[in-house]
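Ticket #4471: structure export looks truncated?
Reporter: QA, pipeline team
Priority: medium

Steps to reproduce: submit the single chain below to the structure queue and open the exported record.
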Amino acid sequence: MSAPPPLQIREANAHLAAVHRRAAELEARLDAAERTVRAQAERLARHDQQLRAALDELGRAKDREIATLREQLLTSEATVHSLQAAVRQRDELIGQLHPRARLLQDICRRRPPLAALLAALAEAERLGPLPASDPGHLLPGGSSPPVANSTGEEGDGDPLQPAVFGTTV
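Actual output as written to the record:
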């Protein structure tokens, strides 16, 4: 076999050198891309880890808040039951006091006539008894007045005590 011409060898060497340069360039770009991918993967892994930690903390905070709200709910339910019991007790008390209130209303309605009666009794007491021996105080019709403050009844020998006007009711 014969040797290729020198021009062909130079062209082949130039081509080989260009392929070699291109291969080295591609390897450098590949290394750079691999470094970029590794850096991005590390950043994504750190970011993922941060998100997982934040999500875990959010879950714990949610659990704490749920526990707090459950406790508040139990406290509120206990308060509601207590208030309902108090309302029932007060309703029972109102039921017990209602008849007394009606009685007091009745008493208040009857108070003015009672006050007038008491005033009349006080006036009668102020006037005092009629004198028993005064002949000038005869009743119309000629009959004599009854004995002072007596009931006018004569029973079995036990005379009644004289009636005295008073305000004790």
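Status: closed, not a bug. The export was complete when the record was re-opened. Leaving a note from the reviewer for reference: The CA atoms of residues 135 and 142 lie 11 Å apart.
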